[in-house]
Amino acid sequence: MVKKVIVEATINGDPVELLCEPRQSLLEVLRDELELTGSKEGCLTGDCGACTVIVDSRPVCSCLMLGVEAAGKNITTVEGLATGATLHVLQQKFLEHASLQCGICTPGFLMSAKSLLDHNPTPTEADIRYALAGNLCRCTGYDKIVKAVIDAAKHVADGVGTTHHGKVPRKSASEATRDMLGKGEEVK
Amino acid sequence: MHAINYESPKTIAEAVKLLAAHGEKARPLSGGTDLIIQLRAGTRRPEFVVDVKQIPELHRISFSLQHGLHLGAAVSCIELHENADMRRYYPGLTEAAHLIGSLQIQSRASVGGNLCNGSPAGDATPALIALGAKARVVGPNGERIVPVETFITGPGRTVLQPGELLVEFLIDAPAKHSSDAYLRFIPRNEMDIAVVGVGGALTLDLDDDRVVDARIALGAVGPTPIFAAEASKSLIGKKFDAAAIENAARLATSVATPIDDMRGTAEYRRHIVGVLTSRVLTIAAERARHNEQR
Amino acid sequence: MAASTNGHDYKVIGTRPIRHDGVDKVTGRAKYGADYSFPGMLFGKVLRSPHAHALIKSIKVDKARALPGVKAVVTSADLPELADKMEAAGEQAINLAHLSANILARGKALYDGHAIAAVAATSSHIAEEALRLIEVEYELLPPVMSVEDAMKPGAPVLLPTLRNKEDGPDKETNVAAHMQFKRGDVAEGFKAADFVVEREFKTAMVHQGYIEPHNAVGIYSADGHATIYCSTQGTFVVRSLCSAVLGIAEGKIKVVPAEIGGGFGGKTTVYLEPLSVLLSKITGHPVKLVMTRGEVLRATGPTSGSTIRCKMGATKDGKLVAAQCWLAYEAGAYPGSPVGAGAMTIVTPYNIPNILIDAYDVVVNRPKTAAYRAPGATNAAMASETVVDELAEKCGIDPLEFRLKNASAEGTPQTVGPPFKRIGFVETVEAIKNSPHYKSKLTGPNRGRGVASGFWFNVGLQSSATVNIHTDGTVSVVTGSVDIGGTRAAQAMIAAEVLGADINDVRPIVADTDSIGHTDVTGGSRTAFATGWAVYDAAQDALRQLKERVAKTWEKKPEEVAFANGLFSPVSGNGVKPMTLKQLAPRLARTGGPIVGRATVNARGVGPAFATTLVDVEVDPDTGKVKILRVTVAQDVGKAIHPAYVEGQMQGGTAQGIGWALNEEYFYDEKGVLRNTGLLDYRMPTCLDLPEMETIMVEVPTPGHPLGIRGVGEVPIVPPPAAVANAIYRATGVRMLELPMSPPRLMKAMLKKRAAGDSQAAAAD
Predict the structure, then answer these.
(1) Listed residue (C630, C601, C602, C598) closest to C616, CA to CA
(2) Phi, psi of A25 (to 5 degrees)
(3) Which letter does DSSP use for residue B99 in this model?
(4) Residue C625 and residue B268: Cβ atoms within 8 Å?
(5) Nearest Cα to Cα of residue C206 among C614, C529, C683
(6) For this structure, is C714 an active site residue?
(7) Residue B37: how many CA atoms within 13 Å on its side-chain side?
(8) Which CATH architecture is the domain A8-80 placed in?
(9) What values do phi and psi take at C553, rounded to 5?
(10) pLDDT at residue A186 greater than cutoff 70
(11) Chosen CATH of C421-452+607-765 out of 2.20.25.100, 3.40.50.300, 3.30.1950.10, 3.30.365.10
(12) CA angle at B182 for the pair C688 and C744, rounded to the nearest 5°
């Protein structure tokens, strides 16, 4: 019998201490040990993005991270997106734009979109589609999801519903690509 | 998943000691985006997982025109992509790192992990080979330097012996009028594994547009990534024109030994090697012409 | 954009309120099947066959049982053996012996992934490890993977008891059924044709690809009752199938609908649900099972791959005169492909005097297929809509005009059944003709524009609804229709419209099997149509009772009370003050007690659906990769209750159709083992693979439905593969006859065409 490990982390702003087996993924720990079932299991191979959470300002598939690796990390899940009873602007825009049908992919999309807006509050549609490419939705064809994020970004740019966790400036995909080519051409 | 033990050493020495003590039963964990899937599928069943992300040397990106690049094996693909020196001096390697999976994957996955996974289709490997990158490996009997093109020995297998740890990559600073590029072909626009990947690095003499140095490497078209030596050599000393590109593409195609699988037929993959080699050389040359460093 | 207001002045219908279950779904609070847990719960896992076709000689479970933490191991020996006969179940009939053997293989493994045994343990990891300790002895048999191989004389037989009518009671076969549909005389018809096009098409087996894997929590109680929490499209079908498979009376099973993470037809049967109850019965604990993605792909019900030959003839002025089709669909390991639906849709959009259609349902060593969004129609339309495009070209007629010349309309005979009532096919073609997309010019090399249309029957079936008037004047609407894509909001909107209530004062609820009358699956595009009808009737029932109470208050007859714009008022004014529902509700106790409106339907007169899709593509001439530049879909939606979710159905169906067209396929190796068992290599479109999706809702109300609703969920998946194929033809000159039109396949076709062109040029020299 392998010993369980005590892991201390900050989850949705609160310090959390838990016992977990090394083989348990962060997703499993969130869902089964902490009852934070908002993060969804869709594939367990990092291909669908339904389990996306933010770990120290980065979007991460929680199915591909061990629970023990969370030690000392600051983790935000979909349950930590709203502020009290006030929805995050992304949550509000997803509702207004009918961006969800079955809703199983929604938590992952929200976390990827939040990570994007934290790093780049004025994304282009191409930036948004790139940032969401790791999240599969089978119901919507993405149209209404992309429109919601565009709308949410407008509000974030106007200072409404600014996100409240740590920000790290990151170049957009298109900017970085321009850097590399030195002449503003697309690679792909 | 079977039961595992988890260790997270803080120094290279500590890590090597743990890896050596457990030998075949231990496996280093970097980003985990391949390893955790393999543990779950039961295709690797180590008893000890040694997380190397707490070791500072494995997280370093240090670059100077004098000393070139030291790229820590556990640097995540996103950190690599965010590094201005990487984007400026190694655009091909940077775009390869930026193609590995989604942003969620790039947040965790590292170039070192991509190589140690031993996949013939890893995106970073052809880019590293094109740059002539060397791997610094530390083991219980000291350290050794391994050219990346000899690192992978078969699907899922590498030169690493039990107890050995990949610490960093060493890459020369790019010469004036040199640059690199990486392209892969995938059916979708993101998320897929390369059907074919091609990395290329070129140094040009702009006075007569001749190739001073060239390296071409192929991914996903053999049991290991392939350094296309003949194709590379064919360019050196030649004028960089359509005929030279076509000849190099033909030679690159001739060393590809792909298989039929769910990602493409062997016939199709050989065709794509030619297409991508031409495109990669064209992009690398365009970048090289604009590279006025030094 | 909506093309008509349908002549009604609705207050709620046609608006876009925020869905009632929305906040729970954006905050992570909504409970899907895998989110349920109970004290003492165990975790189950299923051992699956690694072989496509094998006799199961023995299964040894002792070592697995001995692993600490393992509480039960079961095989088919733990399930009752059921009769080999068909029974009605939801949308289609089902053979219970086959259903049971699909849940746990009996004697034979019939596909890679076929369930062999199941384990319950104290953790999912222990259950997984226990699977490794089960020893199964197989005797391998040759796998039969394609309809062609399965239909060959002397082909290895999957099911020794399978017979078909044609071959008689003595002949073993893999052909479960041959159907034929006939009208006129095709030989005469083709004689009258100036142009005849005949092509053979192949389409790959594809999966619905819902993001949520199948799941179930079973709780068997000592009193013999069982409760199942699961993500299903139909709680009542889960109850009846579990009852049959387990031998537990239906009345002793309660199925609680969890939120469902997509289904598209794939969650209309049972896999894990009976196992969860069986394992719970043995262990005395709740047992949860959740599939991995690999299990979903290997062992749930994708839709059929197919071979289709389609021959159509037209006169030079563009009138279709004859069509002859031959369809063979992979049923999977047990009979029941949607080939019948394929046959009945393949030429139905067109008024063709002479047709002859042969359809074969063929078992192969692949997972038993399940419904997938307009099941059977997409395969068929790939064939017929490509041939129609080619005929239009031969006639020198624009493909949209060609469709208008031949389009089915009111009175046109269907392939089977009565002539069409009012339908909106022509309107969808006209809508595309008038769209900004069609009017725009497509320029640039390697680009092409294609169009195709699609038809789907839709279904009605049974639904129940209750509408409860609460004492504060708010309303709850209870149905048994699981909400996959926003139908709860539609039900609430219908009730709000009838009762003149604010949409936020209406709460829609999806109830468990004990709390509502029988309701068939959420499928067949029936939920807004049929359950919506039941809600409409139930709300009218409530309204009738409310009027009686108002009449009582006013000491009038009910027919003297009028209701409009949320106000009860006297038909002829005599000084009484009009009253709102909110004013009336608190007085119910004093006027006779609570009010519950109720209704059930067995909905008839279902309105068929049509869609026409326009696609622009660009093809990389060096790699064969197709980029979708622009797509517009026009669909007859009858009456859009919540237009945003109707658009969502149109966009989602189009996206799935594009995935089917370009990259999705089941890839089996020569041993019949599925090679792409994850979402890395089963390539569904990401948001970088699709453009903005333009939608045009055409509203041609379904005659007879109180609101004119027409099912909208399925038909948009039908046109895209053919539309993309037709666009690729315009971009490259290559007619693609096989799905998916993946880069290797398209590149090969382009190279072949170039080589043919080169040799022609050489011959000319």
Answers:
(1) C630
(2) -75, 165
(3) T
(4) no
(5) C683
(6) yes
(7) 18
(8) Roll (3.10)
(9) -60, -40
(10) no
(11) 3.30.365.10
(12) 60
Q: Which residues of chain B have pLDDT under 70?
A: 294
Q: How confident is the model at residue A174 (pLDDT cuts 50, 70, 90)?
A: very low
Contact B4 A22 (CB under 8 A): yes
User: CB distance from A25 to chain B under 8 Å?
Assistant: yes
B78 vs A contacts (CB less than 8 Å): 58, 170
In the structure encoding, which two tokens stand for residue A115, read together?
């990570």
Q: Residue C295's pLDDT is what?
A: 98
Q: Which chain A residues have a beta carbon less than 8 Å from that of C122?
A: none
Q: How confident is the model at residue A181 (pLDDT cuts 50, 70, 90)?
A: very low
Of the pLDDT bands very low, low, confident and very high (cuts 50, 70, 90), residue A164 is very low
Q: Looking at chain A from residue 82 to 101, which residues have their Cβ under 8 Å from any Cβ of chain C?
A: 82, 87, 91, 94-98, 100-101
Contacts B–C by Cβ distance under 8 A: 58
The sign of the CA dihedral C316, C318, C323, C325 is positive
Least Cα separation, residue C599 to chain A (angstroms) = 27
| pLDDT for the residue C727 | 98
Q: Look at B193 and C680 and tell me if their CB atoms are within 8 Å.
A: yes
- Domain boundaries, given as residue ranges, for chain A: 8-80, 89-175
C-chain CB neighbours of A94 within 8 Å are 22, 26
Name the amino acid, one letter, at A143: D
The CATH topology of domain A89-175 is DNA polymerase; domain 1 (1.10.150)
pLDDT above 60 for C104 = yes
**Domains parsed from chain B with CATH numbers:** 5-51 (3.30.43.10), 56-171 (3.30.465.10), 178-289 (3.30.390.50)
Q: Indicate the average pLDDT of chain C.
A: 96
Contact C30 A103 (CB under 8 A): yes
Q: Which residues of A touch C611 (CB under 8 A)?
A: none
The reply to whether CATH 3.40.50.10540 applies to domain C22-29+460-603 is: no
The residue to which tokens 């002397």 are assigned: C154
CB contacts of B189 in chain A (<8 Å) are: 133, 188
Kindly write down the DSSP assignment for every residue of C155-196, as one continuous string.
PPPS-TT---TTT-TT---SEEEEEEEEES-HHHHHHT-SEE
The interface predicted TM-score of the complex, written ipTM, equals 0.96
User: Measured between CA atoms, how close is A180 to chain C, in angstroms?
Assistant: 21
Would you state the pLDDT for residue C7?
62
Span C224-254, pLDDT tens digits = 999 999 999 999 999 999 999 999 999 999 9
pLDDT at C88 over 80: no
pLDDT at C764: 64
Residue pLDDT, tens place only, C247-294: 999 999 999 999 999 999 999 999 999 999 999 999 999 999 999 999
For residue C508, which amino acid is it? P
pLDDT at residue B294, rounded to an integer: 52
Intrachain domains C22-29+460-603 and C421-452+607-765 with the same fold: yes
Domain ranges of chain C: 22-29+460-603, 421-452+607-765
Q: Please report the pLDDT score of residue A160 as a whole number.
A: 61
Q: Rounded to 5 degrees, what are φ and ψ at C115?
A: -65, 135
CA–CA distance, C151 with C157 (Å, rounded to integer): 10
Handedness of CA C165, C170, C175, C176 (dihedral sign): positive
pLDDT exceeds 50 at position A185? no
Which pLDDT score is estimated for A166?
Answer: 38
Does A139 lie at the interface with C, CB-CB under 8 angstroms? yes
Cis before C740? omega within 30: yes
Beta bridge partners of C326: C309, C358
Hey, is the C-beta of C217 within 8 angstroms of any chain A C-beta?
no
What digits encode the pLDDT tens for the residues C175-194?
Answer: 999 999 999 999 999 999 99
Within an 8 Å CB–CB cutoff, is residue A76 touching chain B? no
